[in-house]
Amino acid sequence: MNLKNSEFMLGAAKCLSTKIPSFFVRLNSQQSAKYSSHHRLAEVGRLDSPKIQGKYDTGQLFLHRVFGYRGVILFPWLARVYDRDIPNKRDSLSENVDSGSVGKEVKGRTHTFYQVLIDSRDGPYIRAQTEAVTFLGNQDSSRSLYAIPGLDYVAHEDILPYTSLEKQPLQHELFDKFLLYVPEKDPPFAALETLKAWQKKNHPWLELSDVHKETTESIRVTVIPFYMGCRDSQASSVYWWRYCIRLENLGDLTVQLRERHWRIFNLSGTLETVRGRGVVGQEPILSKMLPAFQYSSHVSLQAPSGHMWGTFRMEREDGYTFDCRIPPFSLESKAESGDSPSNNFM
């Protein structure tokens, strides 16, 4: 069993555009004074009204409501969201964080997420190595992990749509391989056959199915697990998952993540405990200016399924410490078709 902190991390400030009454969106290209002593505002387009009902189309340009980057929608996913903050019929049942239960008593609600491309110009200013979407390459070694650059998963409510008159308003190596400018269309970008073929081929490794949420002391933790595949050897089979974790401070007081405590249950009956300082080598601070932090990591099991749950030890600015619960989630494998994930985008 291996729980490996990857080097992939994403943390960012709240998007300033939501506070600007102007008809045009202005994006702060230097979102933190940590990276520069000056700020430059750039006009990027016209802010449109967010959709309350219905889905956004392929090619829709947007600003991320929390992380502030520019992006474009490739295609939607329909996921089941298990939110432990929403009351349900079994609220009266007590829950034990250390029980290992994935919480099937929490009713799943379907919700739309989007696969998106991130503008490469914004990556440095959201403290991001935007390669958190990883997959197993077509190699013999079970540790051959490859990253797809500049991909993210965004919830419907985090999309702030905007319109630009530029033919290529986004800088990403895959933009012109996946999308075609069609001026009479709204939005004016259509999916090319290469995008459809890439989506079909990589569907098992990209698919978002379950999302888990829980809030402790105004700190919301969201977990999205992904099955990555299996690597067979003469001795055993090793199953791999990646998981994305987002922490968001919904309160007024600044908090800092100090420690992580994981419990990993294997279908074979093994329970492993993992403790350590911070996450991905950092102890992120969640403040009013930088309320959110997101990172990805990997876990491997010598069994086709398991569970994970745990806590983050948080320290508030007034010295108060508390354990922030990580909602339990399943690690489920899938039947493999034999096709390997592809990083050939052509």
Provide a quick synopsis of the model.
This protein is mainly β and 346 residues long. The chain has helices spanning 175-178, 193-206, and strands at 2-4, 9-12, 24-28, 41-47, 61-64, 70-83, 108-118, 133-136, 145-148, 151-155, 159-163, 179-181, 189-191, 210-216, 219-232, 237-249, 255-266, 271-277, 285-286, 292-301, 305-316, 321-332. It contains two helices and 22 strands.
Anisotropy-based shape: globular
Q: How many distinct helices?
A: 2
Helix fraction, binned, reads: under 10%
- End-to-end separation: 36 Å
- Gyration radius (Cα, Å) is 20 Å
Residue-averaged pLDDT? 81
Q: What's the count of strands? A: 22
Structural class: mainly beta
Low-pLDDT residue spans: 4-36, 89-100
Strand count, sense and barrel status of the largest sheet are: 13 strands, mixed
> How are helices and strands ordered from N to C?
EEEEEEEEEEEHEEHEEEEEEEEE
Structural overview:
- The protein is 5% helix and 47% strand.
- It is mainly beta and 346 residues long.
